[in-house]
Amino acid sequence: MSANLHQNINSIDYMLGKILSDILVCISDKQFDIERSAFSKAILGVYNAVTFSRPLPSVVVEFRLDDTSVGQEIKSMEDNILSQIPKEVSGLKTPITYLLDELICNIQQHAKVTTGYSYAGYNSKSDSVEIVIADKGITIYGSYVDAQKHLELIGNSDACALNIAHKGYSTKNLPNAENRGYGISSSMQMVVEGLSGEFAILSGNALLVQLYNRKEILSLPQEIDFMGTMIIIRFPAQLPGDFDLYKYIS
Amino acid sequence: MKKIIKINKVYGDELHTRQIIERLKSSLNSEDDYLLDMRGVQRVSRSAADELYNLTHTSKRVEIINLEPYVEKMLSAVVLGRFLPRHYEQSDVPIINCATIDQAATQLSYTPAL
């Protein structure tokens, strides 16, 4: 089952790597207004809103990070995805909720902002779930600096900060006593290995992409400097038969 | 006599954030004993479950009862995670320095081999 899903996601003619490549070119050429999918509009729209203070596209929601609003936003995102999928997929809500919880809680904990940005949708062409969670906060690098943690590992590099975030290095004081520092790494593993999907993080001027058979961090040219963090996720809207959420939690 | 707090009534049927548990904690009186009745709470995030663990294990005066199945599994996973050795991914992700947008775009726009 998993192998078939991997083949499905790889046969999609417009994969996440290509979408991101196209978006980089658009940013470079300042071609912001050309017609594109809702997912691409969301990624580009958040980039433009954070970087150039442009208005958000209608597909993106800005939400407050207080407890009540976070709960409402997560429900709204889930409903938005599940209501668009033409068939009921048993068990799909649970990993979606887990991912949204992890990623939005990360913003709450680390970004030092009061609002976040979200896009959640279903792409009928590729039969995939598409999610964007972003903030205009202090970036992952800034989070380590703010906590004065692991400075020797990150140097002055957004890419190095992304590297240790993916490894599970926490900015908190009790890394051996609490379940902290797993948010990004467990979410990424769940999406790519568990759900046969694709995962990317843009933070500062570094972009981490993990696809089925490839994981790398691009240190981007200076003209791209995203003053925040954006998580971009895409996975097939069908669960592999052997998917086990708890494998990625503990 | 233990005071019972029906979490579902006060905080709703889904607990998403660490802050919501911190808010719960700050509402508790240190002189009293509490039972947190979780009936009807259908979902709890890993972060909120982690804070619930903190709450119940730093105070002998707080117990949790009536866990719904998903919440019970999440709490068990979090407790298990506490006692497993801390795991750090060992391998570094290769960092590719892209001097130009075109270079970065080309790097991303490949067709992966199956």
Describe the structure.
- The complex is a heterodimer of chains A (250) and B (114).
- Chain A has helices spanning 2-11, 16-29, 38-52, 67-84, 93-110, 139-147, 151-154, 158-167, 183-194, and strands at 61-64, 115-123, 128-135, 198-204, 206-211, 214-219, 226-236.
- With 250 residues, chain A is an alpha+beta fold.
- Chain A has a single domain (2-238), classed as 2-Layer Sandwich (Heat Shock Protein 90).
- Chain A has a seven-stranded antiparallel β-sheet with strand order 1-2-3-7-4-5-6, sandwiched between helices.
- The radius of gyration of chain A is 17 Å and the shape is globular.
- The two termini of chain A are 24 Å apart.
- Mean pLDDT of chain A is 86; it is low at 5-13.
- With 114 residues, chain B is α/β, with parallel strands linked by helices.
- Chain B has one domain: Transcription Regulator spoIIAA.
- Chain B contains five helices and six strands; from the N terminus they run βαβαββαβαβα.
- In chain B, the strands form two sheets. Chain B has a three-stranded parallel β-sheet with strand order 1-3-5.
- In chain B, α2 runs parallel beside α3 (46-58) and α3 (46-58) crosses α4 (69-83).
- Chain B is elongated, with a radius of gyration of 22 Å.
- The chains are: A alpha+beta (250), B alpha/beta (114).
- The interface between A and B is large, with 65 and 52 residues.
